[in-house]
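lol forgot to send this yesterday, sorry. struct tokens for the thing we talked abt
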């Protein structure tokens, strides 16, 4: 069973958690999130913990949903918890894949996803860029070509 983690439960992180629950892709118990208030856990039934490192330690698929200026600090904080089995997904539009890979360590597989706020109404589209350590066979929807690294 894939374990999902969310660091950052502001507007976009909360929207992603709600959509995962609403669509039935995973159950609330399969998700862990770091949360300052715990309000999202009360609303959705996800497991809330106060520490980013614990979320990273427990997740196979980790969403980084913090503001772009906070990404580097968060990745430096959790870097020791990331390994080759970790799939790190950032929604920070201004952070490059090269930065994610450098800040996330030598083994973590990185993906950038830029969701649209219209996704909350099941009407959005998301842009996806795969990092160099994400192998084609591990990519959902792998029949779609990823962007060449020189265009990232």
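and heres what i got for the seq, position by position
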């Amino acid at each position: 069973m894939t374990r999902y983690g969310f660091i950052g439960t502001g507007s976009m992180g909360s929207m992603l958690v709600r959509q995962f629950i609403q669509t039935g892709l995973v159950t609330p118990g399969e998700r862990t999130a770091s949360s300052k208030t715990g309000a999202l856990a009360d609303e959705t039934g996800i497991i809330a913990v106060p520490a980013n490192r614990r979320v990273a330690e427990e997740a196979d698929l980790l969403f980084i949903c913090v503001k772009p200026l906070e990404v580097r600090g968060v990745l430096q904080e959790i870097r020791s918890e990331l390994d080759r089995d970790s799939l790190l997904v950032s929604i920070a539009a201004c952070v490059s894949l090269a930065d994610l890979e450098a800040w996330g360590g030598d083994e973590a597989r990185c993906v950038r996803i830029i969701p649209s706020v219209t996704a909350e109404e099941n009407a959005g589209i998301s842009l996806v860029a795969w990092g160099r350590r994400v192998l084609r066979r591990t990519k959902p929807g792998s029949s779609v070509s990823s962007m060449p690294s020189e265009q990232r």
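The helical segments are 11-23, 39-44, 52-58, 68-78, 97-104. anyway ping me if u want another try
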